[in-house]
């Protein structure tokens, strides 16, 4: 490609600091990476009016949910694209980086790109990684767009002026939920937030909105990532004891949410109206929960019609072909527990793929919007028309990042 977009995704769930190896490939996160490839290939490069005469390539980074690995990988690619030479006098040693930085630099000819300029970074999935990455990218005037960041810590734009998000912030989600509750004239609610410390920020934001609208909170329960079974039992028992409130706001980590609903089913907690954020209600595993438990649940989600073309694209995708994404092989290996050269789908793999990889997630729409935002910004910065773009100067892209950021800040396009 003439320019590149870097994508950072948590394809692997663990990083071993000793061996410098990643493990436990997560198929659903690999799909998010594939959404970025789809957006660049299908929505940008195949659009003759967007960047005519130019091609966008991509670099893929597996963060392995490690902040250190994500930062080191990004720093490595910043150096390769000459960002350090133009913006910093750092003299960094990368001698030991290559063995454990799992990245792929890909262009349209399926060859390693010769250091194309970076027009932006997309990622990461969790605020735990997004926050330090945002400070880092802004320090080098490189645009970063996240598809799943919600923290208010990055909302002001003062400390990280090159940071953007296509996802909805905690404040916006809290306002929407408070409006729903007020609309139904519910006076009492319970709140359950699951996941990391950063996820708990949502609870504080939500309670503030409830205070504004005079909504009373009967229970405010926090379930951390290292929860125990007794934590789940206690949470459900507290809800069963609460007479005033039959409305429960449930948000955070989808896996913990599912475990909690399983416990609710075990204790026969019925008559609850669950309100969730984003897509936990549409998770495939929720089908295993009895309708008596989740009947009447309300969830905020993306209209799936807007990603129907990506849905078609996924269904036609053959995981035996890498499609510029080597983690597809890792995903197959994780499912089958063996790397097969002939790559034949067995019945078990077919069932797993059908309910995971081939079901588009809501977040994919936010990733596509991030890609389009960067492409339209470059279109305006270069002064492209519908038929041609001026000759691209890689050094100028690196030098004049403020103008690209200005274009992004004022961009409007059909998402």
UniProtKB/TrEMBL annotation:
It is a multi-pass membrane protein. Keywords: Glycoprotein, Membrane, Receptor, Transmembrane, Transmembrane helix. One of its GO terms (molecular function) is adenylate cyclase inhibiting G protein-coupled glutamate receptor activity. GO terms for biological process: G protein-coupled glutamate receptor signaling pathway; regulation of synaptic transmission, glutamatergic. InterPro entries: ANF_lig-bd_rcpt, GPCR_3, mGluR, Peripla_BP_I. It is found in: Membrane. This is Receptor ligand binding region domain-containing protein. It comes from the Eukaryota. GO terms for cellular component: plasma membrane. Its main location: membrane. Pfam families: ANF_receptor. Residues 32-415 form the Receptor ligand binding region domain.
